[in-house]
Amino acid sequence: MSISIPFDNSYARLPAQLFTHLNPTPVSDPKLIAYNAALAAELGITDEGSEEDLARIFAGNDVPTGAEPLAQLYAGHQFGQWNPQLGDGRAILLGEAKGCDIQLKGAGPTPYSRNGDGRAWLGPVLREYVVSEAMHALGIPTTRALAAVETGEDIYRETALPGAVITRVASSHIRVGTFQVLAARGDQEGLQALFEHAVDRHYPDAGSPLEFLNAVISAQAALVVKWLSVGFIHGVMNTDNCAISGETIDYGPCAFMDAFHPMQVFSSIDRRGRYAYGNQPDIIVWNMAQLATALVPLVENREAAVAEFTAAVHAMPAMIQRLWREAFAKKIGIANPRPEDEKLVTDLMGLMGKQEADFTNTFRGLSEGNARDQFVDREAFDDWSETWEKRLESEDNPTDLMRSVNPAVIPRNHRIEAMITSAVQGDYGLFHTLQDALASPYDTPKIFPDLLHPPKDEERVTATFCGT
What we know:
By secondary structure, the protein is an alpha+beta fold. Helices cover about 40% and strands about 15% of the residues.
């Protein structure tokens, strides 16, 4: 075969109730859209084939040597409601390379598809490719995009849409919901095996379920603060979309804010704002409480475990607040924040919210000298700025600090939608432009200046949608 992947399939050696072995369903006419050669090299993948060969592999038509394809089982709370069995309804894990999962998404039906076709259409595939790689460039833990392929087949949602498959890479696809399904079924043996596997793979220093829980809590707290710091809204923070590794996973109705609003929602299915921008810290605490509940059966003294796990979860909001304070202090040029600096940040964000200032351009503008332009009431900004500038007098190199944490360019919703519209018509130019610009988000793009601009009124995206 023209491609060699150094597979070592540790997940496939776990108890059989955690997955179903099956191959991807072949497609009629696979064509390669994109291949992440740099990521492939990191995974030890060697490639001597043509684009046609790569397309067949990453569409699922050819299964690479050494792969053990499977669909994973999990459960989860979806918008707070318990669903006792979910699973990979359109994703198939080929195996692991260099400790990372390689998974085809949109690879056909599985036993967990719930009467779905197991396919993905082109739009969500391109969104996930662009946004996940942008998140990586921003320094935010995330799944990665290895390849995207057209299938040559239409799939049907409300209308006929072009089909596609994305190959994504993650340090694992183990979710809070993976633990939940075993705990809910009273599967002590399976739960213990999953726990040991997750510890070995992600947190080898965790010697007990409590230490494991604390490690996951720390990773998730850091992740959500990073989301907040760039104005990212995940959109579907269900426990089945919450990875144990602390990586961002499942880019469905995700979005980056333009005008700042603390309770901004884009997801068309989040009708009550459960996963709004400002609710994300509370929701990740809720998700960790569900993980804690699933881990209790692993401890012999369950009463003591409940007390210890509850204390760990209850300590999480203060941890998030501390990390938020540190992250947003850096965004205004303060390396070592004092308690009173939190008010400086919240005062600025209060002004941003009242005047619908652009989130990204306001923070970036603090280091460029043009943040004032984002406000209608510029005198109000000037009053805030006077206090801020005095505070920066005691800081070293605040401008460099701000430029290192405030991106100039993000994958704005209207650009993503324009990219998808063009791609459906066969034009991938904007897809490649976004890929190039977003690879260096902290640099002001010299050849793509229009990517810095918020949407015009007629370009605004008010709702984003899942790709199922």
